[in-house]
Amino acid sequence: MKWKTVSTIFLVVVLYLIIGATVFKALEQPHEISQRTTIVIQKQTFISQHSCVNSTELDELIQQIVAAINAGIIPLGNTSNQISHWDLGSSFFFAGTVITTIGFGNISPRTEGGKIFC
């Protein structure tokens, strides 16, 4: 390919990425900020209503819950009856995503607009 063609393709791809990044920022950032504000208020409310728990203890509990969720465990209700996420079918699906490089990561749109745009 000629240098001019390669440069043009490169600039088009970069422009496409910038436009996409701008759209996702506009769609997702307000929701993220709203969620962050809500959780800070909920933590403050919980601490003020439960004097037996301090903010350090609450933060430690939240960190443990986040670690459990990141490990695929949803710690709601009676967790002893939950089935494993690593049964044969789920493991087969995971192996398929590995070899096809789909790569379901943890960065994905959370809003309906972001999901539709994606």
UniProtKB/TrEMBL annotation:
It comes from the Eukaryota. One of its GO terms (cellular component) is plasma membrane. One of its GO terms (molecular function) is outward rectifier potassium channel activity. It catalyses: Rb(+)(in) = Rb(+)(out); Cs(+)(in) = Cs(+)(out); K(+)(in) = K(+)(out). Keywords: Cell membrane, Disulfide bond, Ion channel, Ion transport, Membrane, Potassium, Transmembrane, Transmembrane helix, Transport. It is found in: Cell membrane. It is a multi-pass membrane protein. The chain crosses the membrane at residues 6-27. One of its GO terms (biological process) is stabilization of membrane potential. The keyword Repeat does not apply. Residues 81-118 form the Potassium channel domain. Its main location: membrane. The keyword Transcription does not apply. This is KCNK2 isoform 9. The lineage of its organism: Eukaryota, Metazoa, Chordata, Craniata, Vertebrata.
